[in-house]
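Handout, section B. The chain below has 347 residues.
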Amino acid sequence: MITRILTDKDKEKYDSLIVHPVQTWDWGDFQITQGHTVYRFGVFDDNDKMISAYSVSFHKIPKTKFSIGTSLRGPNIDDFMIEKITEIAKKENAIFVKFEPNIIHKNIDSFGNETNLNPKPQFNHLKKSPKVAFYPFTYLVDLNKTEDQLLESMHPKTRYNIRVANRYGVEVKEQTDDKGFEIYLELLFDTTKRQGFYLHSEKYHRDLWKKLKDTGMIHIMLSSYQNQVLSAFMIFNIKDKLFYPYGASLDINRQVMAPTLLMWEVIKLGQKLKCTTFDMWGCLGPHAKEGENGYGFHRFKQGYGGQLVEYVGTYDLVINPLLYQAYNSVDKIRWKILRLKASILRK
């Protein structure tokens, strides 16, 4: 097999092989607007047919000549990939490159029983990363089921809350336009401040919207009560998969259960779009405990009866071992400061 860097003329073929939004060509173009350097690779067989594809982005460390590489939700790692990316990483003065393959390691049932599907990568020159980009677990909802089957698989409380929202007359609509985005963005930052978690800047989200709004990949979904939007989701779809990366809600009229009905309508939207799987974009693991950071989101997603899965994990290809240790030490301090700032804003 031969691996080579792709150009714009390869975009259509590249995207035909991609199964996750953050690996698409358009997402790479968005990354470029953030000042990152993006490489798209194609893997070709002996007949020069592209059989696999992935992208790697390099993020400059401010005021230095160094960068950090990431290849998130791409194909399984192999020696050819490592060899090619090592070559590019050295050119980009990368300290390391973070890999998170879009490969499921195991299914986990409600009793904690595990079914292994794929082994975790075993390479001597890869380190288990001390920091993940995506949650290693997520719920996958099977959209091949009928509506009755989907409702039956939900937690009884979730089904009940959907009925509650309907009784209150909560309305749900798609508004994938600039006005809908502005409503969504306002709610998103309100939620961030209230709950005290870190979020990308407003510029990041505006650039994301500007770059992707005409691709057909994004859907803005809103739920309203008495003519006020209470909850807003940004949804991605690619091929036969639906994704829930971002959600927000106001801290008023919580009794009408607007987010619960909104998620149910998103699931039904996925079926209309002929999707077969709804990826909820991350959750806690099988032993999640109340009070744990992120437990509220975990429980909310859990209520829709999806299959809990664990991905193969996060690995670092270390290019500069000394700087790698220093970077991880500084990064721990940086995140403590960010969380402290978020906590102060919440108060």
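Note. The chain has a mean pLDDT of 94. Compare this with the example in section A.
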